[in-house]
């Protein structure tokens, strides 16, 4: 169901249910949560999330599992998905969704919980729950408008329409389109930031995320606090010294 490996400085998490387009059964969601707990203890600099096979990153929830459940089971299912994806969102290291094909419903919500998204040119994305008389339940109504704005998110959610990779890039839903293998492209994307100190990366991510939930004047206070913390790290001292000495810094994540 879940394959977790290391690729040099990175962890690679792969959904391995290609015969079902890597659909998210509740068992897979639980396995995903366990894998994220494991990654949190690894000495890696980024996590790459992808799907097995040529067709799909993740085609969404396992629809058959959603039918005929009592009310509290329905709520518990949504809370399980939200809590699992929150683990991904809260990882101390950045994460990249390598979207190799379809990313629909819960699959797109999984990608939205990652820090960045890299997509194959053939990839297609959407939140089609409205077509089933439902709405997104694993964070889509909350993360999508924060990423692409209220109007575009409202259109995608209320129409359930599919967005191709080129449009996804244009509206900011993905960060890059891959040339060739999408996992290799995600690794190359990670190479662009993984050499920096992890404390500074984590503080910067925290500051940006908190900006979405606070007024500007409060956000500036948060930025001042977090930037001050960054100054107190050994990496900051090394970075400043390296700049003055005109050499490449040797960050040690401290």
Automatic annotation (TrEMBL):
Instruction: Give the species.
Output: Aquabacter spiritensis
The protein's name is: Short chain enoyl-CoA hydratase
Please indicate if the UniProt record lists Lyase as a keyword.
yes
Q: What Pfam families does this protein map onto?
A: ECH_1 (PF00378)
Protein family: Belongs to the enoyl-CoA hydratase/isomerase family.
Cross-referenced Gene3D superfamilies = 2-enoyl-CoA Hydratase, Chain A, domain 1, Lyase 2-enoyl-coa Hydratase, Chain A, domain 2
Q: Which terms are listed as keywords in the entry?
A: Lyase
Q: Name one GO biological process term.
A: fatty acid beta-oxidation
